[in-house]
Amino acid sequence: MEFGLDEIIAVLKPKSISLDRDYTIKGFSIDSRAIKEGEVFVGIKGERFDGTDFAPEAVKKSKTFAIVEKKVDCPHIIVNNALGALKRLATYKLKKSGAISVAIVGSVGKTTTKELVADFLSCRYSVCRSLENENNIIGVCKTLLRVEDEDFCVVEVGINNPGEMEEIAAFFEPDNVLFLNVTSTHIGNFENIDAIFKEKSKIINKSSRLVYNADDEILKEAFEGKENSFGFCFFGDCEFRAENNNNVKVEDITLKKPFGLNPYTVLSGFVAAFVFGGFKDETCFNDKLKAFKPVGYRMRPEILEDKLFILDCYNANVNSMMHAIDELAKLKGRKLAILGDMLELGSFSERFHRDVGLYLNGKDIDLLAVGGDAFFIFDAFNGKKYYCKTKPEAVELLKDKLTDYDIFLLKASRGMRFEDIFTRLKGSQ
């Protein structure tokens, strides 16, 4: 998709223009290292950098110009706010593309669900999707700016703080919203869970079609019976009631759930394709499930010395911890759950870590707790257990315990970088 210079000027209404010729624009970039010829550089400001400083280097590569907030030594246009310009361009490109937009929101499971929804929709349509977990304000902009002539644009939308979803909703008004859940994730930055829900729900506009998890009490109370709202559930009453018996049975089809994939992810993927895409294809959906590989360190299997290590190190909260424990419990063999800190829980941290320890009781799984607040998991668990304050201590302990177990689960928040434990252990063999 190409843009004329007049288009860009009409969208941005710049303060001043310092260009030496007309341009045909092929796209936009905020990364001077990865910019391609024909793309326009947008010099946004970060916490540790000012994109304006990289404008001359970027323009030399792109052979176009830069959108900046002050004069630079290369062809440029000046705007009041470069991030604001990026948002306006993102809005404009999505509208110009004509793609049907889908926003994936919730506390847990957004990235994996986004991938599966995009996979299911691709059974019939062309799809643009967010890359990995680019789900913040800039990430949403980058996704919208990558849309070309696809039928659908599936956008993961995440927040950490109050006000962020409101800011995203000001430039991205999705045609469809898939609302997964509301949990304690990032509760340390909010007053309570209700405040998290209110902020996340700001992405829903008056014309959005909504698919929501009706087994989530907060979502059910808010959306049940509302126009253009469709609930999915395994319990109670909703528009799309399913059965979960290893496989997910919904409507008249059976979806074969791979190990590690949350049944709610499978169900929400089906309902999104059916409601937003208007179709169901049991054969294609199961082909997609069979080939499905979660992004990053999400229930990722690794083999070391004939032992199975399950790396679920991308993020963690109470709900995802419990899901990982449930998946581990299904496997046969001697099992050790290596669990670390769940971050950004504020004053709720001790309580939620203890909840995980209590949940682990009676599961025929041993525990190695690693970290600071992970001690509360250790303290609440009454089975065979070990505790290490640091990851290096955990590695040394695991060297001695490797032969005692067949399966190891590593689970903690991203900030713990729990994959380091596996990497160091692997390097020592």
TrEMBL record:
The keyword Metal-binding does not apply. GO terms for biological process: cell division; cell wall organization; peptidoglycan biosynthetic process; regulation of cell shape. Signal peptide: none annotated. Residues 25-81 form the Mur ligase N-terminal catalytic domain. Residues 105-241 form the Mur ligase central domain. The keyword Ion transport does not apply. GO terms for molecular function: ATP binding; UDP-N-acetylmuramoyl-tripeptide-D-alanyl-D-alanine ligase activity. Keywords: ATP-binding, Cell cycle, Cell division, Cell shape, Cell wall biogenesis/degradation, Ligase, Nucleotide-binding, Peptidoglycan synthesis. Residues 300-414 form the Mur ligase C-terminal domain. Its EC number is 6.3.2.10. InterPro entries: Mur-like_cat_sf, Mur_ligase_C, Mur_ligase_C_dom_sf, Mur_ligase_cen, Mur_ligase_N, MurCDEF_CellWall_CoF430Synth, MurE/MurF_N. Pfam families: Mur_ligase, Mur_ligase_C, Mur_ligase_M. PANTHER family: UDP-N-ACETYLMURAMOYL-TRIPEPTIDE--D-ALANYL-D-ALANINE LIGASE. This is UDP-N-acetylmuramoylalanyl-D-glutamyl-2,6-diamin opimelate/D-alanyl-D-alanylligase. It comes from Hippea maritima (strain ATCC 700847 / DSM 10411 / MH2).
